[in-house]
Amino acid sequence: MDVLDSLILPAHVAAALVAAFLLARAGRAAARRLRQPEVVGEVTVGLLAGPAVLAVAGRDRFGLVLPDAVLDVLGLVGQVGLILYLTGLAHKLGPGPGSPGRRALSALVVCAFVVPLGSGLLLAGFIAATGDAAARGGAPAPAFALMVAVAMSITAVPVLSRILGDRRLGRSPEGRLALSAAIAMDGLGWILLVLAIGLGAGNLSGLADAGTALAVGGGCALVLRQVLRTRSARRFRERMPAAAAVLLGCAALGTALATEHLGMTAIVGAAMVGLAVPAGALSPWAPTVARVAGAGRRLTPVFFVVTGVTVLTGTFASVSWTLIAVTVGLGCAGKLLGGYLGARLGGTPPAGARRVAVLMNTRGLTELIVLEAGHRAGILPAPLVLALVVMALVTTAMTGPLLGPAGRAGEPAEKVSLRPSPPRPVATEGSTR
Length: 433
Description:
Layout lengths: L1 H32 L4 H28 L2 H24 L10 H29 L2 H4 L4 H13 L3 H10 L6 H27 L4 H25 L2 H9 L1 H21 L4 H11 L9 H27 L8 H25 L4 H11 L4 H12 L5 H22 L30
Helix pairs in contact: 1-2, 1-3, 1-13, 2-13, 3-11, 3-12, 3-13, 4-6, 4-8, 4-14, 6-8, 6-16, 7-8, 8-9, 8-15, 9-11, 9-12, 10-11, 11-12, 11-13, 14-15, 14-17, 16-17
């Protein structure tokens, strides 16, 4: 029987992986038909796959379709994909040449980050006032309030860059301003995320453990940065680019798992590695990081499916539709008002400020990464995660329609890169998913 199980389990896992990838492909196709970013369809279909199977097959048969052993392997695959993808995303969290003016950028970052933080605190207060124990959970109040505030303040850099490319806004002043602000706000968001997870322990020992994890992860990242700057490392990358990508991915996985073992989420360790890789428009490591992120990107559909199974199945009965409505309303109000106010204070005309505000309301995949970190840390309970997932999908799906038509018919879509290209007579920017 053990031999039979050892043969059945890999086949079952392979079938589940194929199903996840096919669902992602169907979601991308549906999103294209609806003129939405592909990631919106991929995320939506992946998250709803588990609840849909549960509704059709029932609780008993659901265990046969996705037994715990298979789900554990899928969870590991999804986590690996998330770590690799986040390494590439964090590598792009830095300003470059051609950025907007300091006044405009500072005003937008402050308003589009602080106002949504306030809306998150209002949401936490609403949950406390209504006595919704399922949405509140048992995390310490400071950690809970801060985590909710961070979740409401995120603007997703990857999805935003894709929308800018589809709408041919990447070279416009509003597009550059929105993308630069989103990069800066994501950096602030990761700092507050680390603080919220540290507060989740509810005592100084928990903060000390988080500090130890950060120190170890930061030390590993600094060592990696020094190694990547050596001439030997650059020669190795030139001669064996695939092997260099594999080794960089292993370094990211090792650092991420080490930080998780020490009490901090693996996501933070992956972000540290991404930030440690030498950046810049002419960085020789940019193609290597792109390979790592590309491998992770191909595995993230598994992360969506596992998140839907572990978080959303069994959650619909305990979530309040009032909570979902309030979450979506506060999420839109915080970003739209904060984005518009920040753009206007920075000198953007009213029409351009409205466009910037709509772009700031894009959340997408980065929001799900933050929610996963909060849920794994035991701070965000499943019903609230569901409400925030709905908010993330609704606000992201709103962006395209609110921006209006994508441009003149037949005009090729612009490709947007988070790393500006070096000056040339005719510049062409690389695409970012």
